Amino acid sequence: MKKVTAFVGTARKKHTYYAVRRFLDNLKSLGGVECEIIALTDHRVKMCRGCKHCFRKGEEFCPLKDDRDVLIGKMMASDGVVFATPNYSYQVSAIMKMFLDRLGFVFHRPRFFGKTFTSIVAQGIYGGSKLVKYLDFVGMGLGFNVVKGSCTTALDPMSEKERETIDGIVQGHSRRFHAGLSQPPYPVPALVKLLAFRAARTSMRVMLDETSRDFTYYRDKGWFEADYFYPTRLGVLKKATGSLVDLFATGIARNRES
Ligand SMILES: Cc1cc2nc3c(=O)[nH]c(=O)nc-3n(C[C@H](O)[C@H](O)[C@H](O)COP(=O)(O)O)c2cc1C
User: Fold this and answer.
1) Is the CB of residue 16 below 6 angstroms from any atom belonging to ligand 1?
2) Gap from CA of 86 to ligand 1 centroid (Å)
């Protein structure tokens, strides 16, 4: 049984919830999946103060006391994760953004490898597809394997025609996500992901030291010497390109230091 958890960032249980519920019901009917909806509004999600203690010293030094770690625990305990939000002023909702900011240190030290991610955006008229791209990028930054998300459109009240269109979009999306859950959890990374890893870890190795949590995290995970975040078999081309990026990143980082 795979566990899928949807984190929903909206104050009202209308169109975003409708899409999420349809999505999860479809997954359940495709089989082998159990689901949970987490309403971010039912949790304490405080606004990041920007002190960067989490980046530098470690997330346990965060001065905010809220449900960040409960929510991260829920993500860790899931095989599949969905971030769902309405489009508010061409952006994710405020509560969703506050939640993403609370995960800020995870972009430095990604950890959701082997898990599948997707996004659901509900909009009235326009702009939601950019938010899908944004959230899918966020999912990748957190370490997930990403299945492209979906955007649904409806005015209030939702018309029958809009409902039918949404049902169709969500059905296709849930099928793709269900298939994604059964893909190998640790795929060979795409070149762009490999290069991002190499550039980040090499500049961390050169520019940071033991006083930085990013440094000790990467060191303790063996990431300074690794091909990628997790064991993988790189082809000759990727191996060679990775080494070149290590070389360039070392040069750039040393230049910035001097
Ligand atoms: C403050 C606010 C800003 C909004 N901004 C946009 C927008 O930029 N683009 C859009 O298409 N819809 C926008 N909408 C409409 C919502 O995206 C739409 O009603 C959506 O279905 C809300 O999700 P919900 O039903 O789950 O609350 C906005 C709604 C609100 C309340």
Assistant:
1) yes
2) 6
Q: 227-240 pLDDT, tens per residue? A: 999 999 999 999 99
Centre of ligand 1 to C-alpha 150, Å, is 15
pLDDT higher at 48 or 249? 48
Query: CB of 6 within 8 A of CB of 36?
Result: yes
Q: What is the pTM of this model?
A: 0.97
| Residue 178, Cβ density class (10 Å: 0-12 exposed, 13-18 middle, ≥19 buried) | buried
Q: How high is the pLDDT of residue 53?
A: 98
Q: What is the dihedral of CA 226, 237, 256, 209, to 10 degrees?
A: 0
Supply the pLDDT for residue 121.
98
Q: Tell me how far the alpha carbon of residue 39 lies from the centroid of ligand 1, in angstroms.
A: 17
